[in-house]
TrEMBL record:
Annotated protein name in UniProt: SRP54-type proteins GTP-binding domain-containing protein
GO molecular function terms listed in the Swiss-Prot or TrEMBL record: GTP binding; GTPase activity; signal recognition particle binding
Family affiliation: Belongs to the GTP-binding SRP family.
Coiled-coil region: none
Amino acid sequence: MAAHSHVLPFLSPSPSARCSPCGRRAGLLRCAAAAGQAGFFTRLGRLIKEKAKSDVEKLFSGFSKTRENLSVVDELLTYWNLADTDRILDELEEALLVSDFGPKISFRIVDTLREEIRDGKLKSGAEIKEALKRCILELLTSKGGNPELQLGFRKPAVILIVGVNGGGKTTSLGKLAYRFKNEGVKVLMAAGDTFRAAARDQLEVWAERTGSEIVIDNDKKAKPASVLSQAVKRGKREGFDLVLCDTSGRLHTNYGLMEELVSCKKVIAKVLPGAPNEILLVLDGTTGLNMLQQAREFNDVVGVTGFILTKLDGTARGGCVVSVVDELGIPVKFIGVGEGLEDLQPFDSEAFVEAIFP
Ligand SMILES: Nc1nc2c(ncn2[C@@H]2O[C@H](COP(=O)(O)OP(=O)(O)OP(=O)(O)O)[C@@H](O)[C@H]2O)c(=O)[nH]1
Ligand SMILES: [Mg+2]
């Protein structure tokens, strides 16, 4: 019998309660045997998302460069008058382009605004700004799908993290583990980046820092798929809630390495049908719209379920969040807004729009 797989520890208001099937004490509210593990993961995804609402300040400071870039919008709209509409909308479009909203979206937004101004629906700079925010929010919510993590119905849930070199995969995995551990989740990390010894060491540091367990294969010739398979097996055997799988960076144009990811996905599914529950593609926010091609290729090969957009604190081009969602119809699930432990935020469209257009 797997070690205490019934437990939903983080839902617990009562540290002294016992799990009825196995009687162990771990601060239980209820047991998955009764409530269904589906509830466990649905709630977990939601809980993590709800936390985002309380972290608005962090998000706000993380987007300071993008906001600065877009502050010209406020200046433009303060002095807007009907006769100046064309010039101001041109400049607005330019400001959006510079912030990486991408040509298609920038044009579409400005076109919508132009129409609403022409129809007399928008009569002041303030109204135009609100309409602009509404347009962006609509783009994010209509195309992006559900930004909540979908962790399935069975323990352990498995998240596979993929992406090009240096985008922030390992760091994001560590920050994710930190978030989950704070909710009382039992996390196992899998050092699937067998390419460099330093990558294993880096993940080990994160495991220590977050109090997570880790599976490492010290054999230099170890294949990533084999490490991930071992980890998921252990996760299942020992009743872990979540297995977080790191992978090495790879260029989307490298056929052999992309195929390796397909094997990783397959071995995970072999141990746990239906897993990985999430395949999160890490995209470096500072790379600009190049990330669109990366995202397309990764999605074609492994089927991406969500994005983690990192280093948004280091770039003035936060509009790329909207571009990737619009181009690919895949939700941004997390954003990296700094190097600290708490600087990975569940993505919240409304908070994002407020952070870039306060
Ligand atoms: N400012 C900032 N830096 C970040 C963020 N996320 C990651 N980094 C930094 O980016 C660098 C690369 O991060 P890693 O997590 O090692 O990237 P990786 O994708 O695992 O790299 P490889 O495994 O070599 O492909 C590190 O210095 C991180 O601290 C972020 O959101 N903001
Ligand atoms: Mg790494």
